[in-house]
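hey
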């Protein structure tokens, strides 16, 4: 095989890989504010339908468990991505567009909190998680319950926390009565302890179904045990 033909095949395979993974978004932890009141995250990828790069960034008011005002930015490319691109440039453009608000809320991209749990790529997601944070001595038991139908799916989180001294408390997150259209399943992707140790951030992975197949997107739930 000639070098030129080999190069053509490499470019073809890279383009095919980019297209096949186009709607599997990559999650990015973009950090907390200086006072840990706000949490910022992003997701980006390549759109399957037209191969254009896209990205979203979100700022969450942690105590309110809601999006901060003017804290959501989206960037969509106008041209197909180059072969081998994963869309990260779209994330940088979205961050640039949202820079004034990011500065206003004093988001520190280095203050990403402490990771307590992560669902590794390829691992089987569990409906119930039980683990101990050896640094604080706390034990956690988290149960994700979900209801799926042809029109969408809803979920709720039951969180039990046991302190080092044996005292415990229970918390709830999510809304089992709210069905998101097009979603067929939810999984806990990450659990993050805020830098001040007062809040937990749950990164929830959504499996969305459309006519082209399954898409992966992310959302956040927050609770304050303290």
């Amino acid at each position: 095989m000639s070098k030129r033909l080999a190069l053509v095949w490499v470019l073809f395979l890279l383009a095919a890989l980019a297209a096949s993974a186009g709607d599997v978004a990559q999650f990015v932890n973009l950090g907390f504010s200086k006072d840990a009141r706000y949490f910022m995250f992003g997701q980006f990828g390549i759109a399957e339908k037209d191969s254009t790069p896209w990205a979203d960034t979100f700022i969450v008011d942690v105590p309110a468990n809601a999006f901060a005002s003017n804290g959501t930015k989206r960037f969509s490319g106008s041209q197909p991505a180059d072969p081998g691109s994963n869309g990260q440039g779209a994330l940088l453009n979205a961050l640039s567009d949202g820079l004034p608000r990011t500065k206003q809320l004093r988001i520190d991209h280095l203050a990403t909190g402490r990771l307590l749990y992560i669902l590794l790529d390829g691992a089987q997601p569990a409906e119930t998680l039980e683990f101990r944070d050896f640094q604080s001595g706390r034990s956690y038991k988290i149960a994700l319950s979900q209801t799926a139908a042809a029109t969408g799916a809803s979920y709720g989180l039951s969180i039990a926390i046991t302190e080092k001294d044996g005292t415990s408390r229970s918390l709830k997150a999510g809304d089992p009565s709210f069905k998101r259209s097009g979603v067929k399943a939810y999984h806990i992707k990450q659990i993050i302890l805020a830098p001040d140790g007062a809040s937990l951030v749950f990164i929830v992975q959504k499996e969305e179904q459309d006519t082209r197949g399954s898409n992966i997107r992310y959302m956040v739930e927050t609770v304050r045990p303290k």
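The mean pLDDT is 89. The chain has two domains: 1-112, 113-226.
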